[in-house]
Amino acid sequence: MTLRLTIAMPAYNEEGGLERAVREALAALDDLSDPNGGEVLVVDDGSTDRTPEILARLGAEDPRLRTLRHPENLGITGFNRSMIAHALGEWVFFIGADGEWDPREALRFLDIAERRRCDGVLGYRVEKHYTPWRKMVSRAFNFSLLLGFGVRLRDVGSIRLLRRAHFAPLRLYSRSAFLNAERLLVGARRGARLEEVPVEHRHRLTGRGRGSRPAAVLAAVCDLILTRLRWFRFERYYA
Predict the structure, then answer these.
(1) CATH code for the domain of 203
(2) What range defines the domain where residue 209 resides?
(3) How far is the C-alpha of 155 from the C-alpha of 126, rounded, in Å?
(4) What is the total count of domains within the chain?
(5) Ranges 33-37, 130-134, 199-203, most confident
(6) CA pair distance 87, 9, nearest whole angstrom
(7) d(CA 63, CA 59)
(8) What is the pLDDT of residues 164-219, one digit of tens each?
């Protein structure tokens, strides 16, 4: 069964704000022209708190919620691969479970994608509620894509809507947060049309971001370099 939209979010020990995030996402689906044309897919990435219990209860209340549970924590590449691989929607909207984003943006993105006939809509934050260090890491990362690949992406770590048929089959290699960028870069080179739109960024409900830790930054830089090397033999690696 193919639906029009999947709102996909990862969850790892998100018991503090998970219920609110899921209910907001389900409420956003109510505004689809076909109320049964969407789903919320939550990938539980090996949580050890009450996250599985909360998801089971919410899923029993609303069949539009599907849960996929990893038996262990696989990290950003694991849950990102699972979200697009197991989505049933023609379009997949990637959003966090920490409350930083308004799930209703999925409908705005969907409208833009269908009106402008593009394959992906990428949000960029008007204002980032980050520490100075994390803001610097984010700017450097986005600039590196322009320098290394000639592609200007303002905010790779933001929410995004992707056409599953175009992006799900892509062969990707990154094992770090660079996977998100690799997917967009490869998709664009293979002909995907991308649009960028401004979005509002809210404060987290719970938890702390881990993407700017030195080890995570180093891993992303290594994947960036390896992806750039593969770029010279693009058809061999990404055909």
Answers:
(1) 3.90.550.10
(2) 3-238
(3) 10
(4) 1
(5) 199-203
(6) 11
(7) 6
(8) 999 999 999 999 999 999 999 999 999 999 999 999 888 766 655 555 578 999 99
